[in-house]
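Bench notes, afternoon.
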Amino acid sequence: MSYPSLEINLSKLTHNTRNLVDDLHRMGISVMGVNKVFNGCPETAAAMVDGRMEVIAESMVGNLKKLERLPCPKALLRTPGLSEAADVVRYADISLVGNIQVLEALSREAVRQERRHQVMLMVDMGDLREGIWFEDLEGIETALRRIISLPGLELYGIGTNFGCYGTILATPKNTGKFVEITKAMETKLGIRFPYISGGNGSTYHLAAQGLLPKEINHLRIGGQHIFGIEYVEGRYLDGYYHSKQKIDLYLSDSYLFRAEVLEVSAKPTVPVGILSVDAFMKEKNFEDHGIRRTAVLGFGLQEVPFENIHPVENGIHLMGQTSNHTILDVEDAAQQINVGDQVTFEVDYTALMHLCNAPSVEKVFVR
């Protein structure tokens, strides 16, 4: 095995996925399993399908190409670019769309490729990302009429999003308002939405408390089954695999990052000389803890920010990093750290995303 490496436990992912799907189905809610943090990894997507996830969702068309052979419906999570329309129709069964120009481009491609493409119309309920603004009822109606009338397209449903850009929480009030809009559109157009998608993992806490409007029958979720964490309230989910570290670190032991020790030596904890800026043009402050035993590891910001990983072994402290090196204080490590050893870290969502996108990190799958 080469280092740095990321170990992904597929059995734990399948177990958590099955729990999530079953939990939500008992509430009358279908779910799209979001695979984007894994950068279109076919192995993790297959593990979710093994956990009874019916639809796998990605946020980049290139990642959908990687999943072409996966035997399940696939969705593009973000609004397609006009330049991507051909590949979206080719590789996605469903896409989330927030404007008419893209709808028309998808229709032309669906006709040309002799395919049917399903569309979820997105409504922005205040988070300021994708979708037609919720007060623009005429715009929402017009877009829905176009989906219904355009050849090659089918109405999959209507959706909204919370918590990703504007940090807006899903609440009974704004999800209720979203349902009001969907009901008004159903009445006006004489239709029934197959799916009313009330958001992503940040909406899960409402469903778990029984506070989500009953009309919402669909969510798009990544974090809960991937990490076994409910993020809004900050709690580990019972029956799911998750970290044993304190919850406010938001870690998982299903994904273990390992890096090799390149050097070990006793050095001061404050640089010697005139301070300037680091390689990223940032000023730094240093606390003087005297001479400490430090270790230099073979990864840096190019692979993952050190703030988003946590050593498994007690007594190891992250000091900082450059683009290709990370510095640890190992003076109080439970086991002596030597050159050639591997240090293991648990990771949070941000770290997992970086590591899965880093070609220098070897991915290792275990069951």
